[in-house]
Amino acid sequence: MTDAAELERRTAELLAAHPPATTGRLDFLRARFDAGLAWVHFPEGLGGLGAPRSLQPAVDAALAAAGAPDNDPRRIGIGLGMAAPTILQYGTEEQKRRFLKPLWTGEEVWCQLFSEPGAGSDLAALGTRAVREGDSWVVNGQKVWTSSAHLARWAILIARTDPDVPKHRGITYFVCDMTDPGVEVRPLRQITGEAEFNEVFLTDVRIPDTHRLGDVGDGWRVAQTTLNNERVAIGGMRLPREGGMIGKVAKTWRERPDLRTHDLHQRLLTLWVEAEVARLTGERLRQQLVAGQPGFEGAGMKLSFARLNQRISGLEVELLGEEGLLYEDWTMRRPELVDFTGRDAGYRYLRAKGNSIEGGTSEVLLNIVAERVLGLPAEPRTDKDVAWKDLSR
Amino acid sequence: MSAQPDLLYSEEEEALRAAVRDLLADHCDPAGVITRTESGAPHDRQAWKALTDGMGLAGLLVPEELGGQGATHREAAVVLEELGRAVAPVPYLTSAVVATEALLAVAADDLLGELASGRTVGVLAVALNTAPHGAHKAVRLENGVLHGELTGIADAAAADVLLVPADDGGLYAVAADAAAVTPQVSLDLTRPLATVALDGAPGRRLGDAEPAVRRALRAGAGLLASEQLGVADWALTETVRYLKERKQFNRPVGGFQAVKHRLAQLWLDVVGLRAAARNAADALSTGEDTDMAVTVAQACAAPVAVRVAEEALQLHGGIGMTWEHPVHLYLKRAKADSIAYGTAGAHRQALAELAGLQAP
Q1: Same structural domain for residues B168 and B105?
Q2: Residues 266-305 of A with CB under 8 A from B
């Protein structure tokens, strides 16, 4: 087992062989990957050393302190957080070797082709079809809410390969080449004025069978790996006290005594407490994971943060009074990075509305908590034994 | 802030929890607790003896050289979680935490040893609703003896010694039999209040009252959050259990989505309270960031515990309104706890100072 001392030694070796000051950014990132220091919990040869995940922060900190470049993880979040764990778990050796390195270095950006106009919360009802033709698949359909689609080289895609069986059983998971001529990406403008997401139209897109992840018809199970990682990524950011949305409104409160009222004061303090408790809950969850006692708290983190972000940003608009009536800019843009706590209060208020919808609506997540954590009876399932093609839509 | 607080339970703490839970299962079954509330002897002396004589739990916060266990607030918090889960009518929070902290502040070593054994119950004669920084009454010191009446003193009826703040700024130890202690009909049947009347009672001056009272109330407020966690955890767990069994419309009531979502939301609230309560217990034991941790825990705990207890009653339906079903004990404890050692509002007010979020 690779321990902290061994990682320290390897980090020093990497820095000696590739001094950040004189090494190109990509060269350094590739060397870091080859040294097994990209994600130390991944297997050897795939950017890791099979070490405990908890040892990663020390490596990151040592490299940052030495002035080494990072892989700009926020730009490639979907690849790192969702595609990579899925490829690692279900990919063939060849797929792992082909995809993981440029994914981690950021040379190849990934996006996710899951949601469809007719399949939101009921994702398993998706209708994008993939039909086998010899050694490849021909894909037709429409996907939606795809961030980074216009920047992406690859996509993780789930499509229906068998309409004659119940919905969960006829799905297959693919890696889709976003440069295929049948892929058309159109910006999807949202209530903030900008287009953070895209619609993706797939017309006779050809995917070689070697780009299938997992077995034919087993795509729903493969997708669970992706979705579980998405929820961890959305709800699991480590924050200092007053990190996140509450810090913005607290700052405004301190700088602008003219805006203060007693009513807003009470509501601010209530939300401040809730934000601090949510932060402590997240910290407790991380401590449980490190101690190897995974709790159920993770299931709730996204729910809590969605509700908090919405209420805090709503309070902030109200606090601003006359300025709260204004909006920075409605111009249609396609931002590369999304910061829920960025731009002005009006933007934050509007963007936070998505927090209880994206990555699983709060209603669906409450069902998940009720059923998986509390063990309450599952929702009635009238579609369980019905072939996908016979579902009402 | 330095290191991250330890928000988990250690193996030893879990073992302690299991032992206390076992003991309370034997001594404090719900039917027995309900019967006792109207018995004229609302405190359960047998359970107290088992917790203290048997397990030494009254001395957790007292150093070993003074006859205690030399443990920390983290362990006391685990005990309080279990006492809350059982709404056990024992003077643990009042004697083993609040009075003990006051005695630690004035270094009253002899009394500390007695309280640590559990054979003496001590109670701080400050009204239960007093916040850590709130005003409280003091009795008159005249010609070396004490005069005055104090109200809202929790567990005074079970006390052997009262710790009384007097108007000379001193904290006095007064034997309970030198005072007239009269039970008040209390909302919380399992932590009854009493009035304490002193009419020329002799007292021993232990030291300055102010720092002792502040320290005692802060520890009381911080660890009360763990008791509230226990109350809320019982109410949620029992409601979920019941609603899996209870059938209406040919289905378990717990299968209706309107009910499931409410229970899931309560679970989120309890998860948050657990983090806040562990943070307060850890901060009390390390002395790091303690005022903030206690204030946040108390601003969080009361609304959560009351909400869970109220929802538990509602979701039990008619049976929840009966005297026979224990859920009312938890509602009454949760509601009384929401006032004890300062309301959530009082703690939010303190937070405005601590977090630098000044009022208009």
Answers
A1: no
A2: 266, 268-270, 272-274, 276-278, 280-281, 283-284, 287-288, 291, 293, 296-297, 300, 303-304
